[in-house]
Amino acid sequence: MNHSEKSMDTIIAYTKRKGFVYQGSEIYDGLAGVYDFGPHGAVLLNNLKDYFRKKTVQEKRDFFEIDSAMFKNPAVWDASGHTSGFSDPLADCRVCQNRIRVDKELEKVGIEADEKMTDKEINTLFDSKRDEIKCYKCGSTDFSEARSFNLLVKSNLGDFTAEGSDPVYLPGEACQGIYLNYKNVVDSLHPKIPFGIAQIGKAFRNEISPRQFLFRTREFEQADTQYFVKPGTNKDHFDKIRQERFDWYLDLGVNKDNLQWSQHDNLVFYASDAWDIEYNYPSYGYDEVEGVHDRTDYDLSQHTKHSGVDLSFNDNGEKFIPYIIETSMGMGRLFLAVLSEAYDEEEVGTEEKSDVRVVLRLKPFLSPVQIAILPLMKKDGLSEMALDIYRELNSQFRCTYDESGSVGKRYRRADEVGTKWCVTVDYESKEDATVTVRERDSMEQVRMPISELDNYFTEQIKQSYT
Ligand code: GAP
After folding, report:
1. pTM given for the model
2. Which of 170, 220, 259 should be mutated for ligand 1, with most atoms under 8 A from CB?
């Protein structure tokens, strides 16, 4: 099917049906903006994280990965600017008390607005379009003034502090853990500059209207890299990193026609350049999956100032605060982009008897299930033989064993979750120790000795990385 024919409603229903994504706390009517990953989803998510680690840390000589604690001293969020400036413009519906995010609603009626605008700027635009902006719950146009709403989520960890002192927050962005550990990494591993630190970490935001499935949630994960460079070299590094990040999506199998760059016009005051990689989400259209930011020396300067600890780098006697090139990708948005890209419906069968098969065309290194092992019949020793093959292959590859229903139905079930190969054990297998291997996309079958399966799949998966 064409990408333009895909619908997010279909994909959301599919992710639930096939065990990829569930609404969080569903049996209690759910919790807005929170989702759980099911058995297939958890494996796909982990495969994406493994690939991130492979490309950004393992294959590089100048990158380290850390895993910092979510809770941080509250002073961190003052230094980073989150307690004062991390907000979105909110307005209340005066009829049903629903809350809307005013900049997003303005965009829908063709007005360029963003969360970095002052209350005054956003209210001027809002006032000019009040007749056109309707409450998505009750349809009213009667809203309060827009006001800034801080997105940090508070916790009560160690809530025995004096009244008026800062609460402990959940992380508003994962990267702060990297800045806090920059000095530790320098002191313990003595990297030469430039070098990078990567981290996959959770972030929490009190999003005003989390209505787009995994795209805008209140709990999500960010896969970040922070590259520490000498001031003056940032522009060159920035361009190189941008290219690398774009190519990364192509390596995952995302079609370049569904990706685009978007440069920020309205930069936060400390950034010298910022670009988003946008994916063409079914039904939603192009929107941000990852940001690439030149954050100058802002982060380490702020933490130097607020902590009193000197975070400058000593490069053979030359001391400076490194500039930081950041890449920050939402894992949920990536997951949704990769699934949307791979999801396909295809007409198969004959003119007289046609059928639609759902097939998830994931690269095999990403597939939650790589190989299905199917005995043609449950009897005559075929199950036992198939189970032996399953046990042998499953120690190396992600396999499933399926003996229920016709082989055709089992192929369909396998295709639907992206299983790249089906190995069928039949009567001939008993005679000559061969099986048929059916490939998911072409549906072609080849006969192969059982003894060659291991090498064949290893080679195929290796090739799929490029
Ligand atoms: N440290 C930089 C930072 O946090 P950001 O643009 O706010 O920058 C980076 O977030 C990425 O995190 C985004 O590109 C997006 O993929 C993801 N993200 C942000 N807010 C999100 C939300 N509410 N739900 C899901 N993903 C989100």
Report:
1. 0.95
2. 220
